[in-house]
Amino acid sequence: MSKPFKEPTYLQSLAPLVALIIMLASSVWLFGDDSSYGPNQIALLIAAAIATLISFANGLGWDQVQDGITRGISVALGAILIILMVGALIGTWLLGGIVPTLIYYGLELLSPTWFYAASCLICAIVALSIGSSWTTAATIGVALIGVAAGLDLSLAITAGAVLSGAYFGDKMSPLSDTTNLAPAVSGTELFAHIRYMTWVGVPALAIALILYVFLGFTGSSDGDADSLVMMQDQLQALFNINLLMMIPLVVLFGLAVAKQPALPSIFIGAILGAIWAILFQPERVAELSAGEGWADSLSVVWLTLADGTSVSSGDDDLDSLLSGGGMSSMLNTVWLVICAMTFGAVMEVSGMLRKLLNGVVGLVRGTASLVTTTILTAFGTNVLTADQYIAIVLPGRLYRAEFRSRGLDPRVLSRSLEGGGTITSPLIPWNTCGVFMFGVLGVSPLAYAPFAFFLLLVPLIGILYAVLDFKILRLDEDEMAKDEISPAGAT
Q1: Which parts of the chain register pLDDT below 70?
Q2: Which of 191, 196, 102 is nearest to 419 (CA)?
């Protein structure tokens, strides 16, 4: 006869989390930037094992834990497929000349002084139009990282600027999935939520731009006009550079604006990159093939989708810039996502995650305390579950009744969920967003986090507004009297 299940204690719920924090800190200390290539995954699995043993002691069976892990990983399958497809897209866009063309024109138009601020603005505009921070980072962001390398600028600051702009545009776009999810969970309307988000988003972006301009003026660059011209000459020698190379990018953005699903859209972009390689970069394809027939060209682009591409120009920096991509390049990222979701799933199915969240509710006093607690809870859920969607849904369910009982408009909740959940997700190295950005930009979240000013400022401004009671909307008597039953909010 099975042992009856009992709720975990606070100490039991904290034990796996404390163990994980200690192991992750040790991993970074021992292995540095290489910690994401195995050590962090092992830390997550050991923490999941600790949580599983505690679950057994509380009467949970292995079948229940396994089912929870299966469901938890299934939540991330969509993201995993997108991550693999982005790897394929990067590979064919490198071989097909799309990324080299973006780098070429970027070197021509951008100066070191204004580069960081311009990168932030460009990504903000693109993400606003397509509603996807991931697509923006994987396309425009990759190109801007390449331009920064050409200008001998900081890749960490560039990545911070890319993500600041990409996440501003994502949060202001009605096309974004998380921007739709937060108001749905909170019980408010999409465009009302977006308008309310501008009160924290616009000031955060303005401050970020000022800081990027300051860094551009005070920073040093070893790049000079001659070296930039030399890099452009090298790009032209290796690839056919012209405006036709921009067509796959335009098609991908068009699909995103048309609200087409991300996975097939990115797949189409990857296939277009392969076609462009055969049509416009025959010399590059011939260099990588065993012969000159169509079958040889097909095999090159086929392998590029799987394993990426490489360049041997004699310039190590340029070779590193123009080599990479392929689904195989994302396998470590997938490994990290699976391990992170395993830990989060065990914490959830065992009741430990809810125990920790419910314990936080008891600390709430006034409005400022509630908003601050919600933001910190969403951030903490991001850390524990490694998934921005869970970081919106779980705290949203937990705090929705509390916000209403205090007479607060649901927009206050939805903005707090975005500030603590979505916005902070790429700052966490083992979060799906953090590992994705590391995979496409090649810069560790630990390196770019201090320069991702928008991501740091949004939750802080949200807390400041709550402390000052500024732009904290409240329900009137009629709204308070309405029944709270809402199918959308029950998501």
Answers
A1: 1-3, 32-33, 129-130, 175, 219-228, 290-292, 317, 477-491
A2: 196
φ, ψ of residue 408 to 5 degrees: the values are -95, 135
Per-residue pLDDT tens digits for 259-303: 787 788 889 999 999 999 999 999 888 888 866 678 888 899 999
- By the 8 A CB rule, do 311 and 238 touch? yes
Residue with tokens 């027939």: 293
Give the integer Cα–Cα distance in Å for 322 and 414. 41
Please say whether the beta carbons of 325 and 56 come within 8 A. Answer: no
Tokens of 159: 């990545």
CB distance 379 to 420 below 8 Å: yes
Q: Smallest Cα–Cα separation from 313: which of 230, 228, 229? A: 230
Contact indicator for 434, 440 with CB cutoff of 8 Å:
no
Separation between Cα atoms, residue 106 and residue 482, nearest integer Å: 54
> Cβ contacts of residue 13 below 8 Å, gap of 6+?
347, 351, 352, 353, 355, 356
pTM here is: 0.73
Q: Tell me, letter by letter, the H, E, C secondary structure of 132-148.
A: CHHHHHHHHHHHHHHHH
Residue 408 pairs in a beta bridge with 474
Domain coordinates in residue numbering, the chain: 10-76+335-490, 78-330
CA angle, corner 161, sides to 160 and 164, nearest 5?
85
